[in-house]
Amino acid sequence: MALTYDEVLAKYEPVLGLEVHVELNTQSKMFCGCSTIFGAEPNTQTCPVCLALPGALPTVNEKAIESTIKIGLALNCSIAPFSRFARKNYFYPDMPKNFQISQYDEPICVNGYVDVEIETDEGPKVFRIEIERVHMEEDTGKSLHVGGATGRIHGAEYSLLDYNRAGIPLVEIVTKIVPGTGKYAPEVAKAYVAELRDILRSLGVSDVKMEQGSLRCDANVSLRLIGVETLGTRSETKNVNSLRSVERAIRGEMIRHAELLNKGERVVQETRHFQEESGLTRSGRSKEQAEDYRYFPEPDLVPVAPDAAWIETLRAALPERPSIHRKRLQEAWGVPDKEMAAMINADVLNIVEATVNQGADPTKARSWWLGEISRIANDKDVAITDLAISPTDVAEIVALVTAGELTDKLARQVIEGVIAGEGNPAAVIAARGIKVVNDDGALMAAIEKVCAEQPETAEKIRNGHLPAAGALIGAVMKETKGQADAARVRELLLGHLGQG
Amino acid sequence: MIHLSAAHMAAQLSAGETTSVELTQKHLDRIASVDVDVHAFLFVNNEGALAQAAEVDAKRAAGEKLSPLAGVPLALKDVMTQKGVPTTCGSKILEGWRPPYDSTVVTNLKKNGIVILGKTNMDEFAMGSSTENSAYGPTHNPWDLSRIPGGSGGGSAAALAAFEAPLAIGTDTGGSIRQPAAVTGTVGVKPTYGGVSRFGLVAFSSSLDQAGPCARTVLDAALLHEAIAGLDPKDSTSINAPVPQVVAAARSGDVKGMKIGVVKELNGDGYQSGVRTRFEESLELLAAAGAEIVEVSAPNFEYALAAYYLIAPSECSSNLARFDAMRYGLRVGDVDGASAESVMNLTREVGFGREVKRRIILGTYALSSGYYDAYYGSAQKVRTLITQDFNNAFEKCDVMVSPTCPTTAFKIGEKSNDPIAMYLNDIATIPVNMAGIGGMSLPSGLAPEDGLPVGFQIMAPAMKDERMYLVGAALEAALLTKWGAPLLSKIPALAGK
Q1: N or C: which end of chain B has fewer CB within 10 A?
Q2: Residue B77 among the catalytic residues
Q3: Which CATH class is domain B6-302+383-490?
Q4: Which domains are assigned to chain A?
Q5: Subunit contact B322:A97, Cβ cutoff 8 A
Q6: Do the Cβ atoms of A222 and A257 come closer than 8 Å?
Q7: Residues of B with CB under 8 A from a CB of A
Q8: What ipTM was estimated for this complex?
Q9: What's the average model confidence in pLDDT over A149-158?
């Protein structure tokens, strides 16, 4: 019998551990000069080093070290004055050297934290997520196993390998265990990943696109009976490719663990893969026998010993923390909590800010992005940032509306045109012949015509029943093909009917 | 002409007395004649070498300023990549692989107009002291074809001794340049670690591997040393400092007032009597040249061999993991329905030789969790202690010296079933690699009991490579005066074809 989430929590306490892999957006790979651009033809961004040809040697990308130090500083970590790369040895066809250059016992950043705030039954509450380490490593190539039932290498008919990704700089951010989140565990995890994403974005060190894999989260979950100290056995869920999935995966694993434990069975320590469609996880490889990676210091690379003064320069140049930045924006714009949350959830805060920076009124900028434009993005099923409309375009549209040169309805047509690729707002307006009818004479003619057609409604207004005006204004707008300014129509109509 | 030193050949080239094409052809002819017996070469690049020689001649004819060794031929150890030229490392697993890129050493050789004749034989992946571990058959010592030419760079050393090339490139992980030099009566130098780029040197043990010059004279070695050394941005362990002035040192050979430290622990028991005789004689000659001979102690050297056989195999177990039949070289068992894993297993089974497998297994074990601290960890501590021994000794002397090897060349097959006896050959050369400093071996004469060459080793502090050349040049000059002709003039003539 399936347990409910509340039943799980009545008996067990969840303990989390989150490992986030971030692809850095450096121009070149971690240990060679190859390009890192996403989506190139397979195996075109390779060289002797990232293909592990005999004799090739790695050299460290300084920019990647800088980015990692920035991340460490932004996560309140200490930066090691001396750290080393290590080899993690294991065989896999998509890993050309058959070892991965990573960091092991001497990572570059240690002991940090991130505070995340979530809404609880008792109001907003801050949870501190402690960071154990932040270290550098290289990504593997990509393999596609064709044929076979599981999509895994065993049983596949053949495998395709793309080494373009081999050697892309990766940063792994590992939390300490996170106890004490209770029923909020899934939300805390989601908020943590979201905060991390915002921090990384503000640092400009990664594209942080979960759907493209530039930010990947592995969620470790274990349960223990409430009041018990000893940790339960954990599972590690991979393939969690969106913020929503983080939440779903953890909730799902909590329920799965509890069901096993209630039946007296044990949780297997293993890697599990999150299934986007079902929200469930399926078993991956077992980690019962800890794999022996035979780590040892990478002899081809000298230790990383960043200059203390350089670290301080990087620290001084850190951008404002996103959570503080958000608070500041909220105050400056006078936005209620709920609206702010809506913007954050819809991932439009940055675009709205950019629009405001272009001179738009915050409320109007927000309502366009959150309303019309979000709706179009949903219809098209694309990320709002992938639409062909920029903050500058929206700021321009807001300005035109404010100046009375566009009505809201016309503005929607302009937005549609811009997104359809017809050019910037000015170009769309010119091409589509969109203009506001602001000739009072033309408007009066339309008003008189409408009043004549709907004499009863006109009479009601004349008698002071103002809500009835809407119907007539609507009719006038229709008459003028939407190109009239509704506010001016209302003014003229009410004047005409003695209510001015 | 092929019996001249490289410096002499270079002088003839610049005087217009010969051309690089002529010189190269003479060496190619020599190789064609004697290499059937010596087997120093795995690949002879007739066309490539002549094309390179013609290019140098054309530049010279056009009046271009050329490097000191421009037009002089060289033999390249098969562990170095050269674009388009087969590179096997003496292993079956790389059969057929033609690298798409030049190693930095090769780039530097080409830049200097040094003509690359071909690739020389070696113990598979540089693991060995006799070149018997080559998958392509052993190289024979030109002094006595029934004997080993040393290893792993036996091909390069034998090519010099057989006058198949006046210059060669070797690599030295535990003595692979110096020990072959010693047993063939030639000169071999392992520069300070990081002095010569490792980019394109197929790694055996990354923290120990170092490429260096092999020649028949100290000056030739110095000229080649300066041609290949220097900072390389492609090798993160390459040293960012000016190249030591080794040519000037080799020309000077002035050792007056220099303190030469004799390593107490690298002498005595286990060293062949003729080896000791020649060593003592060399010390006397150096003293006569104005050097002060002092005794120094390096108590931790006795652990060097054991530590080396943990560190080198550990690194090799990881370095050689890339030979998995996926991207280059041999592929065995790639039949319909075969899994990647079985192809990988079969290829490695067939492609790697016994010694390579032995070291991969040893290293894999030494790095395993639970054993790491006891083996790899302890070995690294020994390494630190050896470095301290050197540092302490170098406070009392400018260079340290010892016989290069305990014995002269042994018979082919004599030690091939006794890995420990084989490993003991490198007892005097390994500490240098462990500490990352420089070491040179030059001929000190023939052992009276077997008439075979004996090597004299000079060790200098890191980035003080010029000191080895000062001492080496002084000893070479004194011995030449004593002998009246270079040692190699005594080598038996090869029958040839």
Answers
A1: C
A2: yes
A3: alpha beta
A4: 5-311 (no CATH), 320-420 (no CATH), 440-496 (1.10.10)
A5: yes
A6: yes
A7: 80-81, 87, 89, 94, 97, 99-101, 103, 198-203, 205-207, 233-237, 314-315, 317-318, 321-324, 326-328, 339-340, 344, 364, 367-369, 372, 376
A8: 0.95
A9: 75
